[in-house]
Amino acid sequence: MRTFTPALQDIDRAWFVVDAQDKILGRLATAIATRLRGKHKPEFAPHMDNGDFIVVVNAAKVKVTGNKLDQKNYNRHTGYIGGLKQTKLRTMLQIKPEYVLEHAVKGMLPKNRLGRALLKKLKVYPGADHPHAAQKPQTLDV
User: Fold this and answer.
1) pLDDT digits (tens, 9 = 90+) for 101-127
2) CATH code of 50's domain
3) Cβ-proximal residues to 66 (8 Å cutoff; 6+ apart), any chain
4) Does residue 77 form part of some domain?
5) What is the domain extent for residue 23?
6) What is the average per-residue pLDDT within 21-37?
7) Is 134 helix (H, G, I), strand (E, B) or coil?
């Protein structure tokens, strides 16, 4: 049996808008990762980028369950000894709300060249407006 490879001219990429207001972070991220990867299409090939473009609005109004607002940490390192910086989810949603969703989706994509290419098709905005009206995105209910 041979691996199915769709031709590049046969791949059609649609644009979708997802409203993240009052959605659970993890469940929203899995739905977005599936669409970015193209696993919802019958011509899915695991080695190719045949997913859709996703525009997420209202990322600042995403919800989490449990005590994650005060217990979940985002770590970064300055490169110096003892330079670990930790930021709580509550603070991160105020400072960079788009990073929270991008980080969650990035963890669900492949950790290689393909995953980095897929992540470029995700556009996240903290408010309700976005500059992608020219692409005529369809509304996606997650």
Assistant:
1) 999 999 999 999 999 999 999 999 999
2) 3.90.1180.10
3) none
4) no
5) 15-64+97-139
6) 97
7) helix
